[in-house]
Automatic annotation (TrEMBL):
PROSITE patterns found in the cross-reference section: G_PROTEIN_RECEP_F1_2
Lineage: Eukaryota, Metazoa, Chordata, Craniata, Vertebrata
GO cellular component: membrane
GO molecular function list: G protein-coupled receptor activity; oxysterol binding
Organism: Xenopus laevis (African clawed frog)
Protein topology in the membrane: Multi-pass membrane protein
Domain G-protein coupled receptors family 1 profile intervals: 37-251
Keywords per UniProt: G-protein coupled receptor, Membrane, Receptor, Transducer, Transmembrane, Transmembrane helix
Subcellular location(s) per record: Membrane
TM stretches of this protein: 25-45, 57-76, 96-115, 136-158, 184-212, 224-248
The protein's name: G-protein coupled receptors family 1 profile domain-containing protein
Alphabetical list of InterPro entries matching this protein: GP183-like, GPCR_Rhodpsn, GPCR_Rhodpsn_7TM
Length: 296
């Protein structure tokens, strides 16, 4: 048993200074790039049809990124100072927010992709609300569910075990609260995310192949082809940003004490999804087609 523990510690060993440097750099990039993307998107919204369901999903995705990015400066301050100075309750909130950001972003990505796929298979140019007020009401309902139904129980149970966070100068050390029930729930969530993303990826490849066969040599000049590539981009964001964390977590759930710093680095990779708006805005500006980007 002792040899096995030593092997695990060797496998998960990482210099703490290197880890904090990596985390500081990654979250700094995330904060700057995420805020830049949000500002650029706000300017582009003026020229976009905000009644479409896809645009409504993107706007809500932007709101989710904005809420998460407000907590990032506190993470950076902690990684620089190596000391938490904002109280245990706020530590729980900041720590929980990155997990909430993963699943809220995942929900909006999946919603957007399903809407796009329905539009393609039903051969509809776009699916939209009758009025902008309807999109506002729908968005408000979604955030009421998230903030009043989902968020309070999550924050109540997250990091609420007395044995965690005993050192008030430390933050994000909630791994000791992983019980058997929490472990099983994590496995279920991991299985759902991997299955859904892989299924969407398979459907998207099928759609792209079908579009290429129908358009043949004219494919690069057709809007429908570029629309499907943009849908593929959403899926790639989920694969690149969410898969490393959730696949490593399968191993981590049985080695929480030895691999905590690796888990923090993998968790920071999920936050790179906040840079998607920057990519959207840059692509829209370069192609001078903001409306065409979101309308389908």
């Amino acid at each position: 048993m002792g040899a096995q523990n030593q092997t695990n510690k060797t496998f998960c060993f990482i210099d703490e200074d290197v880890c904090y440097t990596v985390l500081t750099a990654s979250y700094t990039v995330i904060l700057i790039g995420g805020l830049t993307g949000i500002v650029m998107m706000l300017f582009l919204l003026c020229r976009t049809n905000t009644r479409t369901l896809t645009m409504t999903a993107v706007i809500n995705l932007m709101i989710g990124h904005s809420i998460f990015l407000m907590t990032v400066p506190f993470r950076i301050a902690y990684y620089v100072r190596r000391e938490w100075q904002f109280g245990p309750a706020f530590c729980r909130l900041v720590s929980a927010m990155i997990h909430i950001h993963i699943y809220v972003s995942f929900a909006f990505y999946v919603t957007l992709l399903i809407i796009r796929n329905i539009s393609f298979f039903k051969q509809k140019d776009k699916i939209e609300f009758y009025r902008k007020l309807h999109s506002v009401v729908a968005s408000a309902f979604v955030w009421v569910v998230i903030l009043l139904i989902f968020l309070p129980p999550f924050l109540y149970f997250y990091g609420n075990i007395e044995t965690t966070g005993s050192n008030k100068r430390e933050c994000f050390h909630f791994h000791t609260e992983i019980t058997n029930i929490v472990r099983i729930l994590n496995y279920v969530v991991i299985a759902v995310i991997l299955t859904v993303v892989c299924s969407l990826f398979g459907v998207q490849i099928f759609i792209i192949v079908k579009v290429v066969k129908n358009l043949q040599s004219k494919v690069s000049n057709q809007q429908v082809f570029w629309v499907q590539l943009k849908s593929l981009f959403f899926i790639l964001v989920m694969i690149i940003c969410f898969f490393p964390y959730h696949m490593f977590r399968i191993f981590y759930l049985d080695h929480v004490d030895d691999c905590f710093m690796y888990n923090e680095i993998c968790l920071s990779i999920t936050a790179l999804s906040s840079l998607d708006l920057l990519a959207f805005a840059l692509q829209s500006g370069l192609r001078k087609g903001c409306t065409l980007f979101f309308v389908r």
